[in-house]
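Why this split exists: single-chain examples teach little about how molecules sit against one another. For that reason, every record in the complexes split bundles all components of an assembly together and asks for one structure covering all of them. Below is a record exactly as it appears in the raw files.
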Amino acid sequence: QSVLTQPPSVSGAPGQGVTFSCTGTSSNIGAGYDVHWYQQLPGTAPKLLIYGNNNRPSGVPDRFSGSKSDTSASLAITGLQAEDEADYYCQSYDSSLSGSVFGGGTKLTVL
Amino acid sequence: QVQLQESGPGLVKPSETLSLTCTVSGASIRSYYWSWIRQPPGKGLEWIGYIYYSGSASYNPSLKSRVTISVDTSKNQPSLKLTSVTAADTAVYYCVRYSPQYSSSFDVWGQGTTVTVSS
């Protein structure tokens, strides 16, 4: 059972947009801690996709965007491409655990 | 370009100690936190803990009694020790940089090393 809750799967057709949700509690996202998102392509290590709720590291396309509100956060992808098919994880800090916590991950299928 | 490379035994017997080392290249180990994160087969990511180059460390409460993360600044190497392992500790183990500059996110990942716990 992950501290942050993510739906297990999301799908979309090429060119469309999808949104991933990440729900936390008052001890993590709701406490004001930043949310970060990671993309894990099949068979590879995760890669930082969004940091600090809505910032993209250098090299990440602007098709990817993040937002945060109250006890939840979202990742949006526009203009879906086949290479976006991957697992997406959200991560934050939890004050009651005094450490980093992850969501269970959402698998994106590009139809 | 910062690169992280994990190394250590790929097979550990139950009840024994898992020991992994991470070699950091392209950056000094100072000024950052260094973390270990694991991923059991077919499952999600689990934060194990992190350490600052000064030696100050923080651990996942669920693993705290069995985990030690240390850092050898002379070799630019963070290390992980996990005692009394069971099959539940079978996972890919990642060495990861924890970066205050990126809002305390995990910004650089090693390729991961697979550790299987089995007799």
